[in-house]
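Retro notes
What went well: the complex prediction finally ran end to end.
Inputs used:
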Amino acid sequence: MNDSSKARSVGARCAKSAFLLIAGALGLASAYPLFAEQRERSRVDALLHGVATRAWGSTARNSARSAEDALSLRRERLGSLLSTWEAIGGCGAGSSSGAGANVKWIGRSVRGGLFSAQLMASYLRLPRQYNLSGGYSLSMVLQVTRDLGEKWNVGVAVPYLYKYYRDYYSLPLDISNAGLGDVSLLLTRRLGAINDTFVTATLGIPTGKYDARFRNDLLTQDKQLGHGRVSGSLMLDHVFDEVWGLIVVGGLASYRGGTNEFGNYRAPMGSVYGHAGYYLGPFVPAMGLTFNAFAAHDRDRTLEQHSPLYTVAGSATVEWSNDYVALLLGGSFPLRLPEFSTEPWIVAVGVAISPF
Amino acid sequence: MTRVRASAGLSTNFGFAVLFCGVFCLCLTASTDGDVFWHLAAGREILKRGALLSVDVFSLSASGRPWIDVHWLFQVICAWGYALGGLRALVFGKAIIVASGALLPGQVVRRRAGAAALPLFIVVLFAALLAARDLLLLRPTIFTLLFLAAFIHTIEFARADGTPRRLWLLPLIQVAWVNVQGLFALGPSVIFAYWLGWELEARFGRASWFPFASAAGSGSDGQMRRGLAFALASSLFACLVNPFGFRAVLLPTELLRRLTPGHANSFSNEIAENVPPFILEQQTGQFWHLKWFLLALAVVVLVAGRRLRASHGILVGGFAFLALIANRNVLLLYWVATPLAASYLFMGLRRRLPRIRSVHVSLRAATYASVLALSAVALGAQRREPSLDAPAPFRVPELSARFIAAQGGTSRIFSADHFGGYLIWKLYPKHSPYIDTRLILRTPEQFGEYLSVVDEPARFDAFAERERFDYVVLPTAYPERYLALIRHLYESEDWRLLVSDGTETLFGRRDRAASPTMNLGDASTTARLLSDIDHRYVDPRVRADARLQLATLQLALGHADQAERALESSDDAQATALRARARLAQGDRAAAGRIAVRALEADPNQVRALNLLAVISIERGEIGKAVGYLRRAARANPFDSETLTILRSLEEKPHDAIN
């Protein structure tokens, strides 16, 4: 692990990335008309090609009357107040970004564009009695997905993590670790006549640093950014779309990487969950419950950690969306079973767009 | 040293004077908006009754419905102002308020970045307001601009002073705001943005990852945060200080809901000022400047770097969001973001280019020259503006209102919604319009029904029978949406065209209207109308537009020959395009094609001419040629709805093809 000055420079890089992100978002917004124009040109070109390649024969003149009716008396200076609005949006659970965040995106989200992008930022607070030192963890996961036809969807989730721990080993020293986590590839298959069931397979690629050291001391596995081993999961969601809102039930089975070269072990886990969201205009407040079970305790360099075997987490989210963008604010509050003691809570904010 | 200080003071005052005069002049435009008239009517009624209006008394579709008239104070002020000096007095009042408001962000810029930053701010604000000046309407929004500026000025100066003493002003301003406009929720939102930013700076400012500037860390910071929290609470409480109590506080959420774009939201899709600006740019080319402004903000973020305050980021981000969902909010974004952006940009440039200090005089001269150049542009635009004493031409149904008033009695009127305000102002209480632009009083179903009878005239007869209309008042243009309904009424047995000047039409029920039907196909009628136009409009551009509208109306009603007569003395691109259409309507394809080809020689990308040639080619069975013209039209403007409609008419499978 880096010493504090290196940690500061990592943090400074993080800060620089953040305001590059802000400037980039403004730049992207300003570029929207250009992209919209390119997209419309492609669409019209496709229409023109379709018309040009038809065999018209004697039917051509039959189109003349409706074409002449199409001639408008509207003058160029004025636009029609009948705005064309690209149909993006639709109800659905939406796939949550990253396996780590227990805040699931429940709401309308946005769809229908060239691709969907979802950015979820989570804050996890570590209380002082946990891991001896306490601290917090920030993660920003960018998930980009794209539909391949009606039934398939592919995507990639890229996490950026920042972990901060106070009083490292009871020393008057705070440490931090920041950088890229394990990138995930996602493949979703929609099932059912109305595509209300989703099966998502995720493959975790060990891109996150798993051997970070602080003054030659290998950090514990929870402080690392990755695990160094390929991981995978299978998730099944079913959405009940009601007039008043939606209900999502599902489950997850996850292989978290097993044992790596340092003897760090992450146990397989399974989850079942249910969430319900209520439509309130552009808002969708939702609540849910998740039950997690782990096959064994995690181990850090062969030593068993005090990780939970069973947890139950209540979550609450509220989404605001329109045809352009969806915003989410939520929290997850887990309890360790059977003791019912509190586990670190998570607060998350997310933004989703589906442009072009 | 004393001389430097004196010249700096003089130069700063000169800057403020330039700012005030420039913004003042920009605001001197004739009223183009129909809303001011129902405000005037309401103000007149309040003063007459000595009591506020708690239910709608003006329109038929919302008669007796509770009306949360948060604009009551604006309406009373307008009624007084109008009594003093008519519309001219109101326009001057608007200019004074907006120009005075512009001084406040100027002071913020001076406080944050020094007097040397003023010229940059003046240039950018002036340019932004010039680009968006069609949004500087005679509406309660002008007070929102003033109050927004006052809020930001108060908070910024409190922060600079390090004491929250000034913040007690905010709830007082909020009390005025809640009685003037429905956007009063912006007041607490601005305080919240500052408070949140401050809290984030205090909590995370020392973290190396925090991208914004950190708090000063002094004791006064905690005091300021507490002061802001108190100001927020008291401003929220101040929102209750209005005649409607809590019901008024809920109004902004309903307004935001109606602004939120969406397929099913007709209030967002069908109301021009609520359409998202990037969509409107596709349709009409308006708001081309917004993308450049956003790009400029991106550059400012990069230049400011970690000196950017979180509160400013949250504030500008919030207003950018509002601007992107409805074009009416673009002005607010420019108003709020420009002073902050100018100060960051100046400070960033000063850091990176230290030599700028030594050439600041040259820079100031250059920026003042820019201001003068922009003023010249504004003055040039101003000279084309009509008189301030009357509404802008073609925006209000003056002729129809005069006619109906002269008939006496009482009546029920169906009109374009933006005509409703003027009809109320001129004809209340004896005559009532069905609808006006107080759409907060209409349900989505009512508004949907109104739009459907306009767009599908076949529905109008049953609707008119149910509502027992006596008159129908519709515009030819601004917008041209009503032409189909005008044609339906013109051809109907139940309605008579009583009066028209080509730009507006008044129909009366046949059993009620004693006057004979006006025949727009008659050559003598056309001659009389053209003569009236020449006498009425002095400005040649306005006159040409009036002739164009008359020709459009006549063509829509099937009088193509008279339409060509109306266009005889016009040779601009729009007149040429309409003339070609008139020729086609009379079956003379060859002449229509020749006119269109001549138009293309002048402008090869003229979409109207290209579309017309495409239709002619389709009629001749030359689909390949038609596709070629449509391809050129789409290349010139891929969003043109006429091009797309022609293309779709080709896409649909003709019945004969199914053998």
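What we learned: Chain A touches chain B through 76 residues (CB under 8 Å).
What to try next: split runs per interface for comparison.
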